[in-house]
Amino acid sequence: MMGVVSRILELAAATPKRIALSEGEDERMVTAARILADQGIAVPLLIGDAGTIRRTASSVSVSLDGIELMEPATASRLREYAGCYFNRRKHKGITFERALEMVRDPLLYSALMLENGEVDGFVAGAVNATADVFRAGLQIIGLAEGIKTASSCFLMVVPDCEYGADGAFIYADCGLLPFPDAEQLVDIAVASHATAQALLQTTPYLALLSFSTMGSGQHPNLDKVKEAKRILQKRYPEIKVDGELQADAALVPAIGGRKCPDSPVAGKANVLIFPDLNTGNVAYKLTERLAKAIAVGPLPQGFAKPFSDLSRGCSADDIVIASAVVCARAAGAVVSDSRALSSATDEDEIVRMVSDIVAGCIKEMLS
Description:
The protein has 16 helices and 11 strands. By secondary structure, it is an alpha/beta fold. Helix 15 (347-353) packs antiparallel against helix 16 (356-366). The protein is globular.
């Protein structure tokens, strides 16, 4: 396994965190829990119906010795958590009885466990759709202080690559926001900076990417990138950021030095901020397939506490890596514990934050 992933696994194992595996009845989750426990990467909790989890484990010949099972329907804190959810959603007409029914859902219960300090993170998405995972995060965990926009990123690890952090990069946003404005690009950049600090274990250098380098091109689409840079430099002078930069100027020292010799980022970027979802999504998939890169994600960003989404086609190994990433982010204090819950729990905020890909699903689920 590649260097940065190995370092993340080692970091997680150094201070193992309690991680809720929200889809504990799935055989991939059961297998991942065994690996996490045996290798000391995390302290896994399998969330779901205990009988079903045991039958699943037996069917794949996995021992559950030393692995905790959590069954929401019989949990001692079920009514307490129902009260938490009721208080967050009563302005939407949710009754306590309805809340008591809803928090039996393993995904929602996992988010409540994280919010109330029973676990350090949760991992889901092997069964649940992205919309479900992000909805749980937005409604229960909320956004970090000063962040108004949820986003996602990928940890990209490119073999035999001399650029970035020894071939490792943070790509954002590649999964959620179709057309972020300048302020949303700022939120994406700030969250990506924190993610890079926790996962890359080096100084983040943020490149605001475009088809232009420092005014070489002129187009209205460049204005938001320039404005995002201005805001970032004013609000967060400690962050090393520059733009607009073309990808080669951001990555290659010789090209960056020639095109913008005074840039603090050109030629050494390890965090790539894309101007829209089209470029971000295309770039990460091309990198994954053509460069044979490892793509870990999508990793939710901007939230007050760490959790991870998965592809529904994920493997047990993918779940192990995602769990290690959540552990590393928890250990790295990626975001503040202060939250702005009220604005993030309304349906119109969720739809605004989440891409067109999942917005329709969220509207349907929350109607």
